[in-house]
Structure to design on (467 residues):
């Protein structure tokens, strides 16, 4: 039996789905708008969320990121009466399990739920095993976002598929690549790192493929390349987006056949390596620009892993900070230190554009500056972080003061202002519908809003979609 949350303002549909899910043995909780749904989702653990798009107080798709960050990380099925390709793409990319249109067919409505519950059960059973046995040195965190990453890590470790790890600079792509190797059946074999950004362009082929004696000036003896050194182990191509376009075709053949020749050689050499690649670049955009081969991208991207930015899992920041504070205190032999609340408040206020790597550097800076102090304080952090915190505090206080003044002076007019805005919104969209003769695509273009948001507004004000 699972626990299901239905967020839908259509009470008849919601009740019907509740009855069907109840007959399947599941516990049902209902919510009829975004605010109520978000509050219920935060207060309890759910296995599946059935989420409508057009809700009275907004677009249901806007709830999706928050739902996926809940501790239980439920499977979210988007159910809409007016589906559109853009909405489907947004939903799937944001982590929805499925995106379906509401129909009168009971089977079509219950089948995705049954499959999601079965998938959920299998995933949770596998997670119990892998969470205990997974080697994850220096990968800190147990929040919902990190759990998703660890699930992907376990899946990659148990596979021989080519892995592409993407994410911003400093998110830990190298740590994850090494962890995949350490948890794989090849953990006792070489883990060979190739920094594509630092490969000298005139020697790329030699470094990767190796060379025969006399192949070029300075080649005084035969030398195996990094690909051969990774034989029976793992080859990690860091910053693969920097691999020269002239080499990409040759490397594509190596991935396909695991065979290649030394520079200046005639005999084919075999290397049985497992490939992991990483990049902070948008390889799809590079394909469009012609700077990265489409066929190579397909080959290296069998199993994609997207590393989250630190700002996406702040719930684990304190654990990460404590872990590295302990490491640096031991490294610099300065004993355990107390940590003030203000120290953590300053860390949380900063956006961390450099992600975990920047946080680690800031922690090392703080421990070094506080070597003879008993407690870590904001004063020990790098000056740019303290400046940001100070500016943010002043800005926040100014906004609070302004809001208080506005509240004090206009408290009696808040309702009338809201009504005025609602009337203006209704009048604007009535004019748009009339002007475009009900062409929703044109309404979206002129208003600059998404199709799902437009439908939500039309539904709220009872505006017909035809001229």
């Amino acid at each position: 039996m699972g626990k299901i949350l239905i967020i839908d303002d259509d009470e008849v549909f919601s009740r019907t789905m509740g009855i069907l899910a109840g007959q399947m043995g599941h516990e049902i909780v209902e919510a009829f708008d975004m605010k109520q749904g978000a509050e219920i989702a935060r207060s309890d653990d759910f296995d599946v969320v059935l989420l409508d798009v057009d809700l009275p107080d907004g677009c249901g798709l806007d709830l999706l990121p928050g739902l996926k960050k809940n501790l239980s990380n439920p499977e979210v099925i988007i159910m809409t009466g007016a589906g559109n390709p853009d909405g489907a793409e947004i939903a799937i990319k944001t982590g929805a399990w499925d995106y379906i249109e509401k129909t009168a067919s009971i089977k079509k409505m219950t089948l995705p739920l049954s499959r999601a519950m079965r998938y959920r059960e299998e995933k949770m059973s596998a997670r119990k095993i892998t969470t205990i046995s997974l080697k994850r040195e220096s990968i800190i965190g147990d929040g919902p976002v990190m759990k998703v990453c660890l699930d992907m890590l376990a899946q990659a470790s148990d596979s021989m598929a080519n892995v592409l790890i993407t994410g911003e600079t400093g998110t830990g792509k190298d740590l994850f690549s090494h962890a995949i190797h350490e948890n794989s059946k090849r953990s006792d074999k070489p883990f060979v790192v190739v920094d594509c950004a630092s490969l000298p362009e005139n020697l790329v082929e030699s470094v990767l493929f190796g060379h025969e004696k006399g192949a070029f000036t300075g080649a005084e003896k035969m030398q195996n390349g990094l690909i051969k050194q990774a034989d029976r182990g793992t080859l990690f191509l860091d910053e693969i987006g920097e691999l020269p376009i002239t080499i990409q075709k040759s490397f594509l053949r190596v991935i396909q056949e695991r065979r290649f020749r030394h520079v200046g050689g005639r005999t084919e050499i075999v290397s049985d390596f497992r490939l992991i690649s990483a990049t902070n670049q948008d390889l799809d955009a590079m394909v469009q620009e012609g700077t990265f081969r489409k066929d190579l991208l397909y080959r290296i991207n069998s199993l994609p892993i997207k590393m989250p930015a630190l700002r996406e899992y702040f719930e684990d920041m304190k654990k990460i900070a404590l872990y590295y504070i302990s490491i640096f205190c031991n490294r610099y032999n300065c004993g355990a230190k107390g940590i003030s609340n203000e120290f953590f408040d300053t860390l949380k206020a900063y956006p961390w554009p450099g992600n975990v790597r920047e946080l680690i550097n800031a922690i090392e800076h703080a421990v070094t500056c506080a070597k003879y102090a008993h407690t870590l304080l904001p004063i020990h952090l790098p000056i740019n972080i303290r400046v940001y915190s100070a500016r943010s505090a002043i800005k926040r206080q100014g906004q609070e003061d302004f809001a208080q003044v506005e509240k004090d002076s206009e408290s009696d007019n808040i309702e009338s202002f809201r009504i005025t805005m609602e009337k203006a919104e209704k009048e604007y969209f009535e004019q748009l519908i009339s002007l475009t003769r009900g062409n929703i695509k044109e309404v979206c273009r002129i208003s600059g809003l998404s199709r799902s948001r437009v439908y939500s507004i039309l539904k709220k004000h009872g505006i017909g979609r035809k001229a």
